[in-house]
Write a structure and sequence with these properties.
The complex is a heterodimer of chains A (about 120) and B (about 160). Helices cover about 75% and strands about 10% of the residues of chain A. Chain A has about 120 residues and is mainly alpha-helical. Chain A has two domains: about 70 residues, Winged helix-like DNA-binding domain superfamily/Winged helix DNA-binding domain (Arc Repressor Mutant, subunit A, Orthogonal Bundle); about 45 residues. Chain B has a single domain, classed as 2-Layer Sandwich (Alpha-D-Glucose-1,6-Bisphosphate, Chain A, domain 4), CATH 3.30.530. Helices cover about 30% and strands about 35% of the residues of chain B. In chain B, about 25% of the residues are buried. Chains A and B meet through α1 and α5 of A and β1, β2, α2, α3 and α4 of B.
Chain lengths: ~120, ~160
């Protein structure tokens, strides 16, 4: 399960590790764009831009749709920051609770041990 | 190094399984019956459900942890104006499983399932919260379990303090 989360985040982080790809996301946040438009904005070849968009698509950060001969890109459903903030908040609550629960359980273990010693006596 | 590995294995993980379900896992260094005991006796439950770091006061805690039983937790300093959380235990298997409803938000309420699995004297806990809609889950995130949200600032401070140690 942990591996699964890590894999998910790794894909997203790898996607965001590149300055051009972050730029593409920034651009798409302002409006949808075709691969051709993106390539020209970032002064790249079509092939190069296709690769970047492919990585973003794999991470769920971008969705592409081909209409006629034009492939249009828009932001995908995976809004990483929101998602991570949401999970972090959720985790804080449970983490704090479970740390406190550790304390209660330790106490129970001590009591049980003490009772065990009494019985043997 | 070994100690570090161990603490990592005990760490709380949170994963969104779908638009409507979140799963939390954690390992406890104790047999399942003790984890269950801490979860099912009000006097023990009170000690950890709202850790001091959250800055909330659990004013009252009534729980009848058996299938069909109910619970009611009241928070806040003002008895006339309590913030209440309540619901019903829809399935309880001692030492193994507790399932309850969260009814304070009406139709948007989630169902929480806790399962305990004992391995070599340790307990692997899986807690799943299922919401009726994606919106209800998103809301639970932004409201962060309603009451607790307000105190995240304090929690943040405490966590910063702890990590600075």
């Amino acid at each position: 399960m942990v591996q699964c989360i890590l894999a998910q985040f790794n894909t997203s982080f790898a996607a965001l590790a590149d300055a051009t790809r972050r730029g593409v996301l920034d651009q798409l946040a302002r409006g949808d764009a075709s691969i051709t438009e993106l390539a020209s904005t970032f002064d790249m070849t079509l092939t190069g831009m296709k690769k970047h968009v492919g990585v973003l698509e794999l991470a769920g950060l971008v969705i592409t749709e081909k209409i006629g001969r034009v492939r249009t890109c828009r932001l995908g459903p995976c809004r990483l920051e929101e998602e991570m903030a949401w999970i972090a908040r959720y985790r804080q609550v449970w983490d704090a609770r479970f740390d406190a629960l550790d304390g209660v359980i330790d106490e129970l273990k001590r009591q049980e041990k003490a009772r065990g010693r009494k019985k043997r006596k | 190094m070994v100690a570090r590995k161990e603490s990592e294995a005990h760490r709380t993980t949170v994963e969104k399984k779908s638009d409507r379900e979140v799963v939390v896992t954690r390992t406890f260094d104790a047999p399942a019956r003790l984890v269950f005991e801490a979860w099912s006796k009000p006097e023990l439950f009170k000690k950890w459900w709202v850790p001091r770091s959250m800055g909330m006061t659990l004013r009252s805690c009534e729980m009848d942890v058996r299938t069909g039983g109910t619970y009611r937790l009241e928070f806040g300093e003002d008895p006339a104006n309590p913030m209440a959380f309540f619901g019903k235990y829809i399935e309880v298997v001692p030492g193994k499983r507790i399932v309850w409803t969260n009814e304070e938000s009406g139709d948007a309420g989630s169902v929480t399932t806790v399962t305990l699995e004992e391995r070599d004297g340790k307990t692997f806990l899986v807690l799943s919260e299922r919401y009726p809609t994606k919106e209800a889950l998103d809301e639970a995130g932004t409201g962060a379990q309603d009451a607790l949200h307000e105190t995240f600032g304090q929690l943040d401070e405490l966590l910063t303090e702890l990590s600075a140690r």
